[in-house]
Design brief:
single chain; mainly beta; 2 helices
Length: 430
Amino acid sequence: MIEAVYVAQVQEPLAQEVRTVEQKGLIHSKGADRYEVLKELPKEAHSFDTMFDYADFYGKLRLGYIDSRYDLPAGGDERKHAFSLGGELGFKTAEYNGVHLQGAVYVSQDVHALNPRNEKKNPEFFGEDLESYAYVGEMGLHFQNEYAKGALGRIRVETPYADSDDIRMSANSFEGACVFVEYMPNLSSQFLYLTRWAGYDSQDSEANLYQNKFKKLVDEESFGMASGSIIYEYAPESSARLWVNYIDRMSVITYVEASGIEYFGDEWIHFDYGVQYSRIGELEDSNVEGSVYGAMGIVHLNKFFFGAAANLVYVEGDNYVTDGFGGGPYYTSLDEATLACMSQLHQGEDLRSYKVGIGYDFSETFFEGLVAELVYGELRDDHNKAYEENLIITYDLNERWHLEAIATHFEPTRLNQGFDRAVVRLDYNF
């Protein structure tokens, strides 16, 4: 799924890969080395009590609208829409001996005056029984020193197979621990252990597990996910990384990626590139096994950019590949369609997919901060095909206001299960 990354965000997710160049637009958000860190150090306290005296509050107010039209298997269609007002309200204490406390409440409030009756209300903004929700999405003990930083508790992370994927009213968040270690300026590692998660991607309607409820990553018998990585910056704004993920009772995933930016003379022309490989080995006869290969490139010509990406999936038997816990790392992921969704629907089938897109950054016009994009992608095997079209508008009105609008058309050619969807989100960051 497509996820926006923009610098108005205040909190700093952990286990996040760093890039120094701001790449606007959602085409980049599923590109290589796509994560961006905004670092704001907490204030220093001289005692435990003054940690709270010097606490800072931050947040994000979000007004969201979603309108979906679904094709029905028996013919005809069904439309559902919804408005919601919510966001995040967080706090960060001052730092004492390298330690501070940070937490945030995630909220989605039904705007009853604007919403239809339940049978016509879109459920993607709400919790159980289409009700509003408010829950503690983050509450962690954070630490940092000259060589490392980390957190324990409910935290946000951004890694290839566990990420926030903030695509509706609230991001995914996790329970566990995370540590980032810097050995030298161009060599670092990240380690994490996660047990439970909540958020839009975590839902399981069959088990009545809703997005505002924390639940086990795999099942009640699994101890969770343990991951480690090493990242080497082999040139400015270019790096290679190796991740090893052990997901108990599901799979062992080894992920390798190399990506960077090449400049031709000056910044007027530059090229983003990336290659990726993932080997997924099943555990406990989970059927989650396969290999994924990928490559991507984005050409920038002044304010125009053109992107293309491709992935190949190879599986055996009745196996399929996974996105992990979030939007997944694969370059051809779209607003809705991902390799893992297609693979799980058609187990045992090898897949191939591609994505192309074009965009323009209006930063040198009156509409500074506006980016418009068109994206098209296809996923197919030997018997099935699906395609998706995205029209994407992102607009940083200023440092506090951010607008995002995504129109999606999804069409599986062999099944009458396509849909059209529009999502608009207006954020105010403070």
